[in-house]
UniProtKB/TrEMBL annotation:
This is LysR family transcriptional regulator. Residues 2-59 form the HTH lysR-type domain. Keywords: DNA-binding, Transcription, Transcription regulation. Gene3D superfamilies: 3.40.190.290, Winged helix-like DNA-binding domain superfamily/Winged helix DNA-binding domain. InterPro entries: LysR-type_TF_proteobact-type, LysR_HTH_N, LysR_subst-bd, WH-like_DNA-bd_sf, WH_DNA-bd_sf.
């Protein structure tokens, strides 16, 4: 019988297309993935992957094993979810994936309150810009800024996150919109809605710097590096910033709460989801959930 861990590493290689990509997804080093892959090929007595200079390509046998392995993985996760859903109520660990800005500036400030309300639940929060797979149990619950499309998930819209333009009160061009420069995202986030909104407002005016996350935009704006498009719950409460108006179109991101349908009856998961729903609904900065 082959080692399941070896098969799990092979699945990661098949999904990522490279050993380094698989290593990042599994949070291990490149050598571990290579060793696990070689061990699986030795166990099965067949070549599964063709190692190319910059990629890994599945062999015909590898494609067949990959499809079968995905089905095995799905079945294993289904068993785990069903077991999790039948656990004793209000006791255990719940993993939550959420956008970094919400983790750092909203959720982290409410952990003490959550612990008081649910002392038996250990909430494990990961700040991730990517959309994790709930089917593969990468998280029990997720907050997303894009409406989830997976048919296996249960979703709920719990609020809206409005954006506006902000600059330091000491920004040298504060009273001269024609001289504004803008703080934007780098090119990997070119398709992000708030990036497109900001660049549309900027028009022909220059981008002074590019940063990859909202927390960095906040700090750069405080330092007077330019005008930033920030969530209003951040900008409006920062005494070093002032909201500026450039007659741009209003912009907001919906906030979606999602879990796998197999976990919707888990008392611990429901407790976390209900707490999050109420936290956003009771904060006027996030508007009406609808």
């Amino acid at each position: 019988m082959f080692d399941w861990e070896n098969l799990r590493h092979f699945l990661a290689v098949g999904r990522a297309g490279t050993l380094s990509g698989a290593a990042r997804s599994l949070r291990v080093d490149h050598a571990t993935v290579s060793r696990r892959l070689a061990a699986l090929e030795d166990e099965l007595k067949v070549a599964l992957v063709e190692r190319l200079p910059r990629a890994c390509r599945l062999t015909p046998a590898g494609i067949q094993v990959f499809e079968q392995a995905k089905a095995m993985e799905a079945a294993a996760f289904a068993v785990e979810r069903h077991t999790r859903a039948s656990q004793a109520p209000l006791s255990g660990k719940v993993t939550l994936s959420a956008p970094p800005v919400l983790v750092t500036h909203f959720l982290a400030t409410r952990l003490a309150d959550f612990q008081t309300a649910y002392p038996g639940i250990q909430l494990s929060i990961t700040a991730e810009a990517r959309q994790v797979s709930l089917t593969r149990r990468e998280a029990d619950v997720a907050l997303r800024l894009v409406r989830p499309k997976e048919s296996s998930n249960v979703i709920r819209r719990i609020g809206r996150m409005p954006f506006a333009l902000y600059a330091s009160r000491r920004y040298s061009a504060l009273s001269e919109p024609s001289r504004w420069t803008f703080i934007a995202y780098d090119e990997q986030f070119a398709d992000m809605p708030q990036q497109q909104w900001l660049l549309n407002i900027a028009g022909q005016r220059p981008v002074s710097c590019e940063l990859s996350d909202i927390s960095s935009h906040l700090i750069a704006a405080r330092a007077g590096a330019g005008v930033a498009g920030l969530p209003c719950f951040l900008g409006d409460t920062d005494k070093q910033l002032v909201r500026v108006d450039d007659q741009g179109a209003p912009f907001a991101r919906d906030i979606w709460l999602v879990t796998h349908r197999d976990l919707r009856r888990s008392e611990t998961v429901r407790a976390v989801m209900d707490y999050l729903s109420e936290a956003f609904r009771s904060d006027t900065a996030f508007g009406e959930a609808g």
